[in-house]
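[step 3/7] inverse_fold.run input=structure_tokens len=174
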């Protein structure tokens, strides 16, 4: 989040000194952690969207920064998302989803044997068959271009493919 914009984009990488945010229209911002005012469900950057763009916008295709050396990790008492991802590395949970033409769709919030549940911008929800996945890396790439994704749009409040209520997801908000 920016001071004047509730959704700047998604944090796709974190290094020792910065976060990398992918926004709409293939915008990318490499923002120093010193600019972060608050974290929680969202990260609040203490600048307006225009200031962020002027100071930290970089080419989307530029190599992502890395942190070296790799920090050693040990599990503490509070289990967080990073802990979950280390424990279940083959899971698609929280991976970004893109179409074959590189458009951002959203993030995977639940998966079954056959379906991924993707939450996108503007409260969109897509239940996409795993058979549409053509590549998995940092992002899940779907074998379709952006307009085709709307074939899989469903009501955000619909039950999960497992039959569980949507409230079962910890991030669910109306």
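[step 3/7] decode complete -> sequence:
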């Amino acid at each position: 989040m920016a001071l004047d914009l509730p959704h700047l984009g998604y944090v796709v990488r974190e290094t020792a000194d910065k976060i990398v945010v992918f926004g709409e229209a293939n915008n990318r911002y490499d923002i120093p952690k010193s600019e972060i005012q608050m974290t929680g469900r969202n990260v609040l950057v203490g600048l307006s969207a225009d200031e962020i763009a002027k100071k930290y916008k970089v080419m989307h295709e530029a190599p992502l920064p890395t942190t070296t050396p790799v920090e050693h990790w040990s599990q503490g008492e509070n289990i967080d998302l990073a802990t979950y991802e280390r424990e279940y590395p083959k899971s698609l949970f929280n991976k970004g989803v893109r179409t074959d033409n590189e458009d951002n769709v959203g993030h995977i919030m639940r998966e079954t044997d056959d379906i991924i549940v993707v939450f996108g911008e503007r409260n969109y929800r897509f239940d996409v068959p795993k058979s549409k996945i053509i590549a998995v890396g940092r992002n899940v790439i779907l074998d379709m271009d952006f307009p085709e994704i709307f074939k899989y749009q469903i009501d955000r409040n619909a039950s999960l493919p497992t039959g569980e209520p949507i409230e079962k997801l910890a991030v669910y908000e109306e």
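[step 4/7] annotate
Helices lie at 49-56, 81-87.
The two ends are 18 Å apart (CA to CA).
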